[in-house]
Amino acid sequence: MPWTRSPEVPLDAPTVLRPLGAQERMYHRWSNAHPMHHCLVVQLASAVTPEAVAEAVRALLPRHRLLNARVAETRQDGPAFVTSDVEPHLEVGDDRPWTEIVAQELAHPLPNGALFRIVLVPPSDTMVLTFAHEAFDGLTAVAVADDLAAALAGSPRPARPTPPEREVLLRADPDRRAIIDAGPPGPPPLDPRLKVPATIRPFDGRPPAVSALALDPALTEAVRSRSRAEQTTVHAAVVTAVGQVIAHARQLPTVRVMSPINIRPLFAAFGSDDPQGLYIHVTRSLVQPGTFWDTARSQAAQIAPARTGTAVSRAAAAIIAASGPAFTSMEAERFMTRGALGLDALVTNLGLLDVHPSITGIWGPLVLDQVLGEQVIGVATVNGRTHLTSASYDPVPGLLQEVEVILRQAL
After folding, report:
1. What is the DSSP-derived secondary structure letter of residue 337?
2. CA dist 362 to 50, 121, 172, 287, 325, Å?
3. Which fold is adopted by the domain 191-410?
């Protein structure tokens, strides 16, 4: 039988924080049938106790109000974030490597509308944080990790209000509001290779293959410097390397890569430059045969238009039109499989992270969209080292090692 999420908590006593926004509803309904929660691995300079982590999480709740919220169904507004007096689930893992614990976390969706849980990995200097994607994107996960480290160090940070939905922040700009209010535009012209619908694998609770690799500081800086000199980006360079490895391993003439884009810069002019919730836009590019740096420049050029306020607003208009309060999981599947999820790889890059000094490493995001054959690559640069992760049910052998080889050769 196909997996279905446990029913959301009944809406009896809880207080509604706010209804889910259009993109949040899309991700929530998709995850009802195809779990899409994600993990972030946080490594600390010294071990901590479960009691200290539990206390730090409690100190974090006023700052990140969705951490111990739940999703519940309301009659008029559909799914909503509601208050809960149940603290986020914390457990102590066994002595397996954190990659195996992450694989187990990805195989077990968050139950009963919960949005967050945490595993402390022996010898207790590593934490695996698991988030519901309808409430948290990758950079919000990093913000939670950073604030958690501060709380563990005895310096909890001030409370913040419940984060608004993406659409509210987009509408703060009159031009973007006009685009959204005009309704969904016609379908954009797409390369036929991007029109092929995704094939979804039934979720069966099987742990995926998870691996990790850190680039040394010299290589991290060399890729950064060379990308700048070649008038492209580190993300485009990584996408190019990933695409070339998959193309060779799978004998594909073209590799379709999804890239999530942080849209917080669009909010900066309106005083909301650092909200913590789900604030991403996704786009896809085609990695085709060519020399490395020409391909990397092509990747940057393909991705750049999706960063604009116009592109994000048009996509928001389409999602708003599709995902009203009565939106169903079946409708979410039709929308997403015919859109962004036609992919061979997902490269989700958190960028160069400035985090609490007690954090020595961050790995992720680790997530699966349940697309058949997908390779999901997480990228995070912390303390001068780029950390790469991969997750897949059908992994390309040695993918991360081959990515490193290609990056070194490109220099």
Report:
1. H
2. 20, 14, 33, 27, 36
3. Chloramphenicol Acetyltransferase (3.30.559)
- Under DSSP, the state recorded for 145 is H
Higher pLDDT, 9 or 346: 346
**Residue partners of 116: CB distance under 8 A and separation at least 6:** 66, 67, 68, 88, 110, 129, 130, 131, 132, 135, 136, 144
Residue 258 backbone dihedrals phi, psi, to 5 degrees: -90, 140
- Cβ contacts of 84 within 8 Å, gap of 6 or more: 9, 14, 68, 69, 70
* Dist. CA 394–CA 373, nearest whole Å: 5
Backbone angles phi, psi at 47, to 5 degrees: -70, 150
Gap between the Cα atoms of 359 and 157, Å rounded: 16
Are 120 and 90 in contact by the 8 Å Cβ rule? The answer is yes
| Predicted structure pTM score | 0.95
Helix/strand/coil for 239: helix
Assign a CATH topology to domain 16-152: Chloramphenicol Acetyltransferase (3.30.559)
* Range 37-64 burial, b when 16+ CB lie within 10 A, else e: bbbbbbbbeeebeeeebeebbebbbebb
pLDDT digits 0-9 by tens, 80-101: 999 998 899 999 999 999 999 9
CA angle 45, 404, 43 (to 5 degrees): 15
Alpha-carbon gap, residue 371 to 393, rounded angstroms:
9
CB 391 within 8 A of CB 210: yes
